[in-house]
Amino acid sequence: MIKIEKITLYHVSMRLKKPFKTSIETLQDRKFLIVEAIDETGRTGWGEVSAFSSPWYTEETIQTCAHMLRDFFIPNVVGREFFHPSEVPDSLARFKGNRMAKAGLESAVWDLYAKKKGISLAEALGGKRDKVPAGVAVGLASADEMLREIEQYVKEGYQRIKIKIQPGHDVDLVRAIRSRFPNVPLMADANSAYELKDISRLKELDEFQLLMIEQPLQADDIVDHRHLQKHLRTAVCLDESICSYDDARRAIELGSCKIINIKPARVGGLTEALKIHDLCREHHMPVWCGGMFETGISRAQTVALASLPQFTIPGDISSSDRYWEEDIVTPDIRIEEGFISVPDGPGLGVEVNQEIMRKYVTQMDVFTTNN
């Protein structure tokens, strides 16, 4: 039994080492909500809300998440007792949507639960690996800049390269990369930049033996993704389209994709992510873990999730120093010979360095059973 006695919501603002450009947005200043949950014994669990500052990825923003957590979710959880973290989403089910806000709160309870059991988060989730392959994403830039960046990542041992694409910055770019790196596992992420009328353009990518094209069409175009997948040899991977178990079930039944990207934040937390993983395993659908330019809190959680058996493709799991001059956890998440070790300490297996975190905190909200 876990009783949540206190929750502190830290508003954190950090700056990426360099801007990262997608087909929709350029990111550099990154805001987070860090959730610290304390149980009746004084044990601490950590979670992270990784929504963006504008609603370009999902409808949620860091501002809407702060509102939902302060006014609805945290007051509903403080003072309650939970036998298992999977009860947290049930306790919030009457509140519609807002999955990223829910995920950040639930993940803190998962950390508490694993610590109380004296096991790692990976073990609590059913993970089977002690290390996971590292992958990296490369933002939109000139072909020469992207080639230089990819060369560096290949030298560092990353086992999969993801590039961002958009109309007019796709076929020739992929051709140049494939010419330089013919054997590197390569995928392209469109972030919904295309329409079904672009099918002939997307078919041109078939010649480059890509692992997948991620989210080529709009998030709600599950039927159009089915038509697209029928005409492409390259696997379509769905990201923004998959926000729940039911979304994954529909995509599998329709044949809208051959691969699914599971992000705990996007689907509402680890409990829903586990359900999607198990569904995909039942249907022999490969999955991988996407990234959200997170701190080490979410990155450790993602590494733990990626240790499950159906995660057969390297995900967006990079070293902390890929994005940050300093992370807020110790030890840093680091790549070694192409892999990232799954933390085996209790809970997340990393410690929040509060001295470092305080440098980036802009606001704190405290909730107790006495509020």
TrEMBL record:
Coiled coil: none annotated. SMART domains: MR_MLE. Its cofactor is a divalent metal cation. The keyword Coiled coil does not apply. One of its GO terms (molecular function) is magnesium ion binding. Residues 143-235 form the Mandelate racemase/muconate lactonizing enzyme C-terminal domain. Keywords: Lyase, Magnesium, Menaquinone biosynthesis, Metal-binding. The active site is at K164 (proton donor), K263 (proton acceptor). It comes from the Bacteria. Pathway: Quinol/quinone metabolism; 1,4-dihydroxy-2-naphthoate biosynthesis; 1,4-dihydroxy-2-naphthoate from chorismate: step 4/7; Quinol/quinone metabolism; menaquinone biosynthesis. Pfam families: MR_MLE_C, MR_MLE_N. SUPFAM superfamilies: Enolase C-terminal domain-like (SSF51604), Enolase N-terminal domain-like (SSF54826). It catalyses: (1R,6R)-6-hydroxy-2-succinyl-cyclohexa-2,4-diene-1-carboxylate = 2-succinylbenzoate + H2O. Its EC number is 4.2.1.113. It is an enzyme of class 4 (lyase). One of its GO terms (biological process) is menaquinone biosynthetic process. Mg(2+) binds at D189, E214, D239. Converts 2-succinyl-6-hydroxy-2,4-cyclohexadiene-1-carboxylate (SHCHC) to 2-succinylbenzoate (OSB). NCBIfam families: menC_lowGC_arch. Belongs to the mandelate racemase/muconate lactonizing enzyme family. MenC type 2 subfamily. This is o-succinylbenzoate synthase. It comes from Bacillus velezensis (strain DSM 23117 / BGSC 10A6 / LMG 26770 / FZB42) (Bacillus amyloliquefaciens subsp. plantarum). The lineage of its organism: Bacteria, Bacillati, Bacillota, Bacilli, Bacillales. The gene is menC.
